[in-house]
Design brief:
14 helices; 36% helix; eight-stranded mixed beta sheet; 23 strands; amino-acid biosynthesis; alpha/beta; transferase; seven-stranded mixed beta sheet; 24% strand
Length: 439
Amino acid sequence: MNDSLGHLVDWFRHSSPFIHAHRGRTFVVSVGGEALTEGTAAGLVHDLALLSGLGIRLVVVPGARPQIEERLSHQGATIRYVNGLRVTDADALACVRDAVGSVRLELEALFSMGLANSPMAGLRLQVASGNFVTARPLGVRDGVDYLQTGEVRRIDTTAIRQRLDDGAVVLLSPLGVSPTGEQFNLYAEDVAVAAARGLRADKLLFLHEGEGLVDAHGEAIGELTVEQARDWLEPGNMADSPVIAQLARAVAACRGGVARVHLLPRARDGAILGELFSRDGVGTLVTPRAFERLRTAGVEDISGILALIAPLEADGTLVRRTRERLETEIGDFTVVEREGTVVACAALHPIPETNAAEVACLVVHPDYRGGQRGRQLLRRLEDDARAAGREWLFVLTTRTAHWFQEQGFAPAPVDALPASRQAFYNLGRSSRVLSKPIG
């Protein structure tokens, strides 16, 4: 198998849990009009079509800011901003209608392409658009009449779900109509938030301009809880960055019942696929609460634990455990679960009629080493052992003695093990024994 084919096969194998997890889910995608002005639209639509083909229910909300500005400039008109909000007069609204209609038609054309030897070859994809968004005027605020600038009043979720049930990709316009027939200029991102909240979407994805969020060391921030996101929204913190405006909307979406909001750099080719089908993604995930959990294992985790420990059993690092043995011991295990996948595990086996317990099978997936998960697991086991009245821990290891010594364990002779454990000591493995008092 050549390197490129091997990489492809490996990617498919690692992405298969995500493919199964996403099938049948509803995702709302917000993308700015810049995607249609910089030659990236075809690649983006191909990726969205692939998601649809994998059974994901898609609602796409395209913006049209650069297209509107181009038409305004050509007409010699402007959209005035007051207190950060647009004031849309009649001339500007005409440009908005023209630009939004143009963007919609262009996207429909791209979704309809089925040329041979292209990523869309043989694809017949329905695109549905219509009067799904009911708007109302912003009205007069602080003495300013915002004219034809509006806000979302209602999303027709029933009609959208019907189109999604038919297998269509739904396009929502940043142009809404009131019950009286008036048209209003809306922020596309606000339409996306309203749609995600109304549909109780599984994910809301913002493709933002510019760079993403980075920490003080320049490292990309992979995830934030809503509470952590609020710190980024403090005045003066990256105030001019496009991603900050989307972060505020992400918080609003989470508070409205959306479980996952993803902030992705629009200019990065394949950002959506990289985010949805890899363990760590390429952007920033915002959630109501941390989506990585440290918890007691259950029988539903057995397959995940077996898959995690199998490579280490194969190379002799761990003693083999059958499924039957794991089923009887599953109550001793603690796991780290990330997006429904077990990425780390460890077991605490109490030794009957002693004040000791054994730490065993502490494993962290290779993709997640270096994130302190091993230490977190060990601290959890130590706390559990203390709560159960145990006064010391021991561990048998062939390759990780130095790591355990860094965590406070010290070498000990085999005869320091409780007698019942000594009886099962495997002389052939010559495991090193380490112990740690915790009383």
